[in-house]
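Morning. Coffee machine broken again, so started the prediction first thing and wrote up yesterday's gels while waiting. Chain of 165 residues, entered below exactly as on the submission form.
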Amino acid sequence: MTELSAENAGTYARASFEGAVHATSIAINGHGVLIAGPSGSGKSDLALRLVDRGAMLVSDDYTHVHAENGAVIASAPMTIKGMMEIRGIGIEPLPCVDHAKVALLVKALEPGMTAERIPLVPELRDICGVALPLLRLGLLEASAPLKVELALARAIKPVSEQSTI
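Came back before lunch.
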């Protein structure tokens, strides 16, 4: 298992990485989102709030990723498929999908850091040789689920339709 971080994400591309990463993954309308951050940063909490808004769980805490036809595919290790560890409650079954084509990488902000107000240049990170849009976010912010949905909508929108600031 490999720790997925903004700093080492590019090494996955150079090594043709395939395997488990420390990230929770969900699917929103069939589009995958990887949520990365250290233990206790709120990955599962954000995923649970997104599930409450209609998303489906792909995998909690550890996600298997591989490249397929120019896309990153996320899936759950069989031992945790369809299960989420919910702090204070325990391990619970949740609605899930077998896999999802990842369209967005969400990375937990470091403690004490704030997100850039208006990012002038979109950040990208290579996962399995595929450049994915990166959203740096305070995972426990009340607005985090909506920010993920908005960033995902932008990520899947054709470039010709995206607004510029």
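The domain at 9-161 is CATH 3.40.50.300 (Rossmann fold). Going to sketch it on the whiteboard this afternoon.
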